[in-house]
Amino acid sequence: QKEVEQDPGPLSVPEGAIVSLNCTYSNSAFQYFMWYRQYSRKGPELLMYTYSSGNKEDGRFTAQVDKSSKYISLFIRDSQPSDSATYLCAMGAGGSEKLVFGKGTKLTVNP
Amino acid sequence: GAVVSQHPSRVICKSGTSVKIECRSLDFQATTMFWYRQFPKQSLMLMATSNEGSKATYEQGVEKDKFLINHASLTLSTLTVTSAHPEDSSFYICSALPSSYLAGGTDTQYFGPGTRLTVL
User: What is the mean pLDDT of chain B?
Assistant: First the structure.
């Protein structure tokens, strides 16, 4: 079993839809959970950062972490064409420990 | 804040030459920086962890003599691809971990914009 599993998609939704992106993981030592957005031919951009379990909201984005199920989610409300990108989940045990990335989910929001 | 730059943004070189890529944290100090490579439609693959003032730690399967890493200051790490070959063509991305995490700050990595290397 891979440490982090993420459905690569692609995922195509109409503008205004609610998007749900998910990752599962196997390492119970992970404490820090992040979502990055990566546009084509660009470096990843940090979207959300969550420590341990719980929800975090930032504008149209909500990140959820369920450590008991080893499952994290990113919700995008009122999706926009500019949200079209690849979304990568990442997690780590903390400190200078390396992050483990999911494969990324390619999202297209159609006008 | 938390801006990381990379230079050059893209480079094309002949097989057998060496290429140096710079990664700089512009508005924070980074004790630790990471180097990744990414093939088309693939996720990021960690190559090595670079710590200021010490030797880099390479991931399994990454040749340390081919990918030379130097983290000479708290704001600069360099990756040199020595004797590059076409199979080294890839997107190389660095990230930086703010040193402030040691004092309880956020310990998340900030990524550079990437360097696209093409070896002919």
Answer: 90
